[in-house]
User: Fold this.
Amino acid sequence: WHPEQGGWTPDRLDERLGVDWVDPAAIFLAVDTAGPRPRLAGFHWTKTVVPDPGPAGKGEAVEGEVYVVAVDPADQGRGLGGSLTALGVAHLEEVNGVESVVLYVEGDNAAAIRTYERLGFTVELRDVTYTRV
Assistant:
């Protein structure tokens, strides 16, 4: 349902995959091969933020992001989201050398919040939006 992550079409996915920061080696897939056809059970798409290279032309990765974690509803509740997130965070830290990893989660997504807290994430910033109905 989320406006930035929900309801993606193949065209929207192609558009997102075409941005300059996408690293295909930093997208992790969980594929269920038990059935008659392989089925995508979940994925973790990570993002590395590199600062402006400046006059020296060098920029070092300073921050990683848990960009999107998704688990098929049929596979939720089995720890797949946590495993995918941990895999992506390890990649960001060990391979990309990021100094910190951030993520954004809706405050009412209790399952995701529990998963992230078990992985050592803490609240750094909380945005609250008010509307008048």
User: Anything to note?
Assistant: The CA atoms of residues 13 and 105 lie 20 Å apart.
